[in-house]
Specification:
Blueprint: E1 3-11, H1 17-26, E2 31-35, H2 42-47, H3 49-68, H4 83-107, E3 111-114, E4 116-121, E5 124-128, E6 134-145, E7 149-151, E8 164-165, H5 167-170, E9 179-183, H6 187-198, E10 202-207, H7 218-231, E11 234-237, E12 239-246, E13 251-257, E14 264-268, E15 270-273, E16 277-279, H8 286-289, E17 312-314, H9 325-339, E18 353-355, E19 360-365, H10 368-373, E20 378-384, H11 389-393, E21 400-406, E22 412-419, H12 422-434, H13 439-444, H14 454-464
Parallel strand pairs: 1-2, 1-6, 2-3, 6-17, 8-15, 9-10, 9-15, 10-11
Antiparallel strand pairs: 4-5, 5-6, 7-16, 12-13, 13-14, 18-19, 19-22, 20-21, 21-22
Helix pairs in contact: 1-9, 3-4, 3-6
Bound molecules: flavin-adenine dinucleotide and 1,4-dihydronicotinamide adenine dinucleotide.
Residues 154, 183-189, 191, 206-209, 214, 240-241, 274-277, 322-324, 353-356 line the site of 1,4-dihydronicotinamide adenine dinucleotide (NAI).
Family: Belongs to the class-I pyridine nucleotide-disulfide oxidoreductase family.
Binding site for FAD: 53, 317, 323-326
Organism: Vineibacter terrae
């Protein structure tokens, strides 16, 4: 079998792999990208970020039309759901987005190969077809693993993607379940729980910890939980699910206190399991070539994304750091720029996170709890959207902006936003922190009026000295 030679073979065409492949080609490398799904885009474009945001948007429009228009003096008749059309629109959005990646591969002369990649030796990749036989072999000066992550299974709860679903099945339900249990009140649970609650399900979230959304600043979490409860989501905190079995009237979900104790049951139509994701390394042949994993099962890399084997690199969800699409892409760019002799670097502490509930939650940098734990002296500037004129005009006054800055130097250490447009607003805070801005710097920047971003300026002024409008 003839073997084709490349400067770089990328394994996985998710936001880590496809972006790395395009950037490497732009830098003059001959690049192949091997992907086992029929379409590029990885988890994010096919079954993650994009379809979930399409359904979040559609369900938000439904909710707004049914409940929020009256406040604007707009009266509508009976609002009905056409779930099949909503799902078709979601599929169309995914289709257009994955086609876009295929187009970019062509445009940048990346060779896209469909199949499962296995590393046989440094510099040698075998591509397996559906039958498991080697269909093609590739010679590679460098190999980049961007194989992503998969759903963490929960013992006692067997996912069938019909009634006991992971996020993938929850994006494909053909009917609105009357009753739904979400196991895990993390990011997927809050987003997809919101989607199905808006579409009419009675959603109960069972969470192991005594709080929702671990990792988010406590102030924000408290307000988010109140807002979501007002919308009708129910939370059972400090509890763990021990089993989910098909009963006469539905699936019987048993849950008990996290530390053990008397079990209770809930009978529902659909169970969504979302207790986290784990790195995906199956079938890559890592053992054979000697690529080492961390004790958490992620591929261990050095500061330049090189694994324990020279010439084999790894990025994205399969290595340490936040499991986010934009982080995977930045890893990919930094990795291939370093390969091309440039200086690639990603600061994972400045990767923003967004939860696309309503209100949205977005943050970058340290939480107040982290600063306390580290013994850092800090200042807090907080500004509520109720004080922001554009938010009032928009009828979206839930939430606040919180700026945390160093008490001695005023350098911004963290920004936490809960509000209708938090996800868009956080970009400014990331930029500021990338350039080591002080709270005063943000407070002195001219912000357009009336825009919700003025709330960040005011929160920064509050951290530095005094806000004008509070
Ligand atoms: P992936 O996107 O997982 O891509 C890896 C690819 O490698 C896959 O397509 C896989 O098929 C392929 N692959 C694996 N092994 C092989 C092999 N041996 N040969 C060939 N191909 C292989 N992140 C955000 O930033 N924002 C969001 O809004 C967001 N929403 C999400 C919603 C959901 C429901 C889920 C599940 C995730 C969401 N994420 C979101 C997380 C995001 O999807 C991941 O962080 C991101 O996809 C990671 O990119 P990656 O390139 O590392 O891996
Ligand atoms: P997660 O880590 O965000 O949340 C999992 C939750 O499940 C945690 O609160 C945890 O305490 C809880 N849990 C764990 N075991 C449990 C048990 N036995 N019973 C009850 N609760 C239990 O994981 P999630 O929501 O599955 O998402 C995976 C990852 O996907 C995220 O961490 C994020 O990296 C990515 N993602 C990002 C999105 C975004 O950026 N908007 C959207 C969706 C996913």
């Amino acid at each position: 079998m003839a073997s084709e030679a490349f400067d770089l073979v990328v394994i996985g065409a998710g936001p880590g792999g496809y972006v790395a492949a395009i950037r490497a080609a732009q830098l003059g490398m001959k690049v192949a990208c091997v992907e086992k799904r029929p379409t590029p885009g990885g988890t994010c474009l096919n079954v993650g970020c994009i379809p979930s945001k399409a359904l979040l948007q559609s369900s938000h429009v439904l909710e707004e039309t049914a409940h929020d228009l009256k406040a604007h003096g707009i009266l509508v008749g009976d609002v009905k759901l056409d779930l099949a059309q909503m799902m078709k629109r979601k599929d169309d959005v995914v289709g257009a987005t994955t086609k876009g990646v295929a187009f970019l591969f062509k445009k940048n002369k990346v060779t896209a190969i469909t199949g499962t990649a296995r590393i046989d030796a440094p510099g040698k990749v075998a591509v397996l077809g559906d039958d498991g036989a080697v269909a093609q072999t590739l010679e590679a000066r460098n190999i980049l693993i961007a194989s992503g992550s998969e759903v963490t299974p929960l013992p006692g709860v067997t996912i069938d993607e019909k009634t006991i679903v992971s996020s993938t099945g929850a994006l494909e339900l053909q009917a609105v379940p009357q009753r739904m249990v979400v196991i895990g009140a993390g990011i997927i649970g809050l987003e997809l729980g919101s989607v199905w609650r808006r579409l009419g399900s009675e959603v109960t979230m069972v969470e192991f910890l005594d709080r929702i959304a671990p990792g988010v600043d406590n102030d924000v979490t408290r307000q988010l939980q109140r807002a979501l409860e007002k919308q009708g989501l129910k939370f059972k905190l400090g509890r763990k699910v021990t089993s989910a079995v098909q009963g006469k009237d539905g699936i019987v979900v048993s849950h008990e206190p996290a530390q053990g104790g008397a079990a209770e049951q809930l009978t529902v139509d659909v169970v969504l399991v979302c207790i986290g994701r784990r790195p995906y390394v199956e079938g890559l042949g890592l053992d054979k070539v000697g690529v080492k994993l961390t004790d958490r099962g992620r591929i261990a890399v050095d500061a330049h994304f090189q694994t324990s084997v020279p010439g084999i690199y790894a990025i994205g969800d399969v290595i340490d750091g936040p499991m986010l699409a934009h982080k995977a892409s930045e890893d990919g760019i930094a990795c291939v720029e370093t390969l091309a002799g440039q200086k690639g670097h990603v600061d994972w502490d400045k990767v923003p996170s967004v939860v696309y509930t309503q209100p949205e939650v977005a943050w970058v940098g340290k939480t107040e709890e982290q600063l306390k734990a580290a013994g850092v002296a800090y200042k807090v500037g907080k500004y509520p959207f109720t004080a922001d004129p554009r938010s009032r005009a928009n009828n979206r006054t839930d939430g606040f902006v919180k700026v945390l800055s160093d008490k001695a130097t005023d350098t911004v250490l963290g920004v936490h936003i809960i509000g209708a447009e938090a996800g868009t607003m956080i970009a400014e805070a990331v930029l500021a922190m990338e350039y080591s801005a002080s709270a005063e710097d943000i407070g002195r920047v001219c912000h357009a009026h009336p825009t919700v971003s003025e709330a960040l300026k005011e929160a920064a002024l509050a951290a530095w000295d005094k806000p004008i409008h509070l």
